[in-house]
């Protein structure tokens, strides 16, 4: 997945020829052309699942290696000794597999020491179109007569300091995709890098140092918009201090003077207008002029996407005998011909699409019941 994203970014954004990509990746030109011609952002590789003889003993070997690491050099067991001990436990593999596992484990430990011992340099200045920062905040608004806590997506260009806010009821994958898509629309394009914290809608697992197991659908969005995703160290908000300050400033400059709204659509339209007004009124902290002038200078350096990312999250549902499917404690109707049959449910921020057999069966407005509101209160 990461290699496909890099190939697309080199070809479509950096304009590298296929010969140069071949030299860098050591892939054949036919394979590179196949990736570039395909519209697929999530490649599926057919491969047989084979169980290694070493898999049942991998965790035990790791534990042994960690125990041996605390011993002096003269008292450590050798690879031959490890292999002999495994054979006594029923291992039927070769010594070479055990030796390779030990080499890989030691290399990983050395890499971790180098990463944690050196520290990370975070640039304080950015070039036009180089990066953007993203973060979530929480604020309250009056929607339909109720005071409701909302999740606010903040996106900011690092060079021009232009920013955009959008409010949502939840923090989910499909809402994150919609927030970034709308942000790129308002900001006029996509920078080369995106700086995020380790939010669960993007990172499935945090590894040692900068190693991250990125969510597959988030990787598809990164591959579509051709930017490089970077994640901050845990509990290191200063690595994206610009957007952290925007979250604080927006609470004082925008949310305190917010009127009542009939729905979220009206609220987000008002937020977009207020952000554009702030670009004009705020002076840039480093460049001459205001934020709007700096944004106009940065616009030619942003990549304008050809189309928006189809940011749905798919689920497989079985239709009940009463022609209903359930999602988030709500039931939605499906044509009677698909009763007791599986269908595909595509979840968007504001609607649900039910599909089967390569066609769309029906659409429903999404009912969100997990608003954090206080009934009966209409003021701040």
From TrEMBL:
PROSITE patterns in the record: HTH_IS21, INTEGRASE
Name the UniProt record assigns to this protein: Transposase
Domain HTH IS21-type per the UniProt entry, residue ranges: 3-65
Q: List UniProt keywords, sorted A-Z.
A: DNA recombination, DNA-binding, Transposition
Lineage top rank: taxon: Bacteria
Q: Which residues form the Integrase catalytic domain?
A: 124-308
A Pfam family assignment? Mu-transpos_C_2
State if DNA-binding is listed as a keyword.
yes
What family does this belong to? Belongs to the transposase IS21/IS408/IS1162 family.
């Amino acid at each position: 997945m990461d290699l496909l994203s890099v190939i697309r970014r080199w070809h479509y954004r950096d304009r590298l020829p296929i010969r140069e990509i071949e030299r860098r990746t050591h892939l054949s030109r036919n394979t590179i052309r196949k990736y570039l011609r395909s519209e697929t952002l999530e490649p599926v590789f057919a491969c047989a699942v084979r169980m290694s003889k070493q898999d049942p003993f991998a965790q035990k070997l790791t534990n042994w290696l960690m125990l041996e690491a605390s011993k002096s050099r003269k008292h450590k067991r050798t690879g031959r000794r490890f292999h002999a001990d495994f054979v006594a436990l029923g291992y039927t593999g070769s010594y070479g597999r055990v030796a390779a596992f030990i080499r890989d484990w030691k290399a990983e430990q050395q890499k971790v020491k180098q990463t944690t011992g050196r520290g990370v340099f975070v640039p304080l200045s950015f070039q036009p179109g180089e990066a953007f920062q993203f973060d979530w905040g929480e604020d309250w608004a009056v929607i339909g007569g109720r005071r409701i806590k909302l999740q606010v997506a903040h996106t900011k260009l690092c060079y021009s300091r232009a920013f955009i806010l959008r409010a949502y009821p939840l923090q989910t994958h499909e809402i994150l995709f919609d927030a970034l898509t709308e942000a790129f629309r308002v900001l006029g394009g996509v920078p080369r890098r995106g700086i995020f914290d380790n939010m669960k809608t993007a990172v499935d697992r945090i590894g040692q140092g900068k190693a991250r197991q990125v969510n597959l659908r988030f990787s598809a969005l990164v591959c579509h918009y051709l930017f490089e995703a970077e994640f901050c160290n845990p509990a290191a908000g200063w690595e994206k201090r610009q957007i952290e300050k925007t979250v604080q400033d927006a609470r004082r400059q925008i949310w305190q003077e917010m009127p009542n709204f009939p729905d979220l659509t009206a609220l987000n339209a008002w937020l977009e207008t207020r952000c554009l007004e702030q670009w004009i009124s705020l002076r840039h902290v480093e460049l001459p002029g205001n934020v709007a002038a700096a944004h106009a200078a940065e616009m030619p350096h942003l990549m304008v996407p050809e189309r928006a990312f189809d940011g749905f999250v798919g689920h497989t549902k079985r239709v009940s005998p009463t022609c209903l499917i359930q999602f988030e404690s709500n039931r939605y109707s499906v044509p009677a011909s698909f009763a007791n049959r599986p269908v595909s449910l595509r979840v968007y921020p504001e609607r649900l699409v039910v599909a089967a057999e390569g066609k769309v069966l029906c659409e429903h407005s999404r009912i969100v019941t997990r608003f954090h509101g206080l009934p009966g209160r209409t003021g701040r």
